[in-house]
Amino acid sequence: MKEPARILVVGGGYVGMYTALHLQRKLKRALRQGDAQVIVVDPEPYMTYQPFLPEAAAGSISPRHVVVPLRRTLPGCQVVIGEVTAIDHAKRTASITTLASREEANGAIEISYDELVLAPGSVSRTLPIPGLADHGIGFKTVEEAIGLRNHVLGQLDIASSTRDPAVRDAALTFVFVGGGYAGVEALGELEDMARYAVRYYHNIVPEDLRWVLVEATGRILPEVGEELGRYTVRELRGRNIDVRLETRLESYEDRVAVLSDGSRFPTRTLVWTAGVKPHPVLSAVDLPKNDRGKLPCTAELRVDGAEHAWAAGDAAAVPDLTADQPGKECAPNAQHAVRQARVLAENVIASLRGEPLRNYEHAYAGSVASLGLHKGVAYLYGRKLRGYPAWAIHRAYHLSRMPTFNRKARVLAEWTLSGLFKREIVSLGSLENPRAEFELAAGTGRHPEAS
Q1: pLDDT for 109-144, tens place per residue?
Q2: What's the whole-model pTM score?
Q3: Is 193 in a helix, a strand, or coil?
Q4: Could you say which DSSP state residue 137 is in?
Q5: CATH classification of 126-274, choosing from 3.10.450.50, 2.20.140.10, 3.50.50.100, 2.30.42.10?
């Protein structure tokens, strides 16, 4: 009996899920008849739509609606919840540890494949700054976004109830490091939320809150252009946000943020959004990587120098055929990811069938960014927009890119309801330690609010 053609997709993020979705549609008959098999491996059973994380942190969208369940979206594929620990491409095998591996204590399972798709995405790029690893907060996952929301609201509770001015000032100071999309959008949304929330505190006013944005270069949001970047700085500073350009974080020991310009900010909140790096799983892959740890790819999205290996998204260095400058690579954003996934799936199928491959080519359309409720900037096809029109385009664009009609409808419904009713300002920090209350009742722990 002929073995089915097996396609292994490492990563269930934007590129991985969409690649598997296209393979599922185009190989529908082969999958049903057992002539092909698509295996998707990811540590989480869902894909996170990261552009909506700032709105989830601000409470505009429920966290469960910014994630897409892989098993329901990919019924024709085999979804394995686990981590790839090693790939021997010469033998076409991958070692995977699953949740059951720890319970069974029998080590990793081994999966063979015919075609390998690497789309593990990226992780936060941190620096060896004293205190950062101990007290810093990331903003890359839905868990971090909701944890940050709970944390910010918790700081308002601390400031409202303390009699110590130093504790109050540290609780009401929020430092964000990184002036890219993640940092600016997260700060804009959370500042909006906190300013709204303080109206329900009898002893806190918006002027008590201190927000600081630290950026190592001389501009923020470089993707929207220099003019809109300057406008964004003016907009943020007009909201009493302290924007520090050409400034670096030197240390965060004892929860005191020390900047390269000599400033010191005692703060209980330091959010690190200063860039990303390829996922560590690439270090376990016997394939070529460039000096930034990415997989060098051809325009066909094949890993350069490796047959039957493909890559796209954050972990891949894909040449931009539409760029004027030779050697320029495609930006790691959703605009390219969704299109790369489609071409990648088509080329994998073409490779299996011995058909010619096609190049990935897409001219950059522009960028959009939210600066909080009803505020934004957009650079689209040479046109510059700001304020409410840019914010509306930001929402419309990302709603159109949100996978599945189910999630689109739920997000749209939540936006509609949020326009009719007041914001939710409840902190559910105890969700991060759900057994604390039971441990307290059993006499083995502290009350969750005590931490």
Answers
A1: 899 999 999 999 888 888 899 999 999 999 999 999
A2: 0.88
A3: helix
A4: B
A5: 3.50.50.100
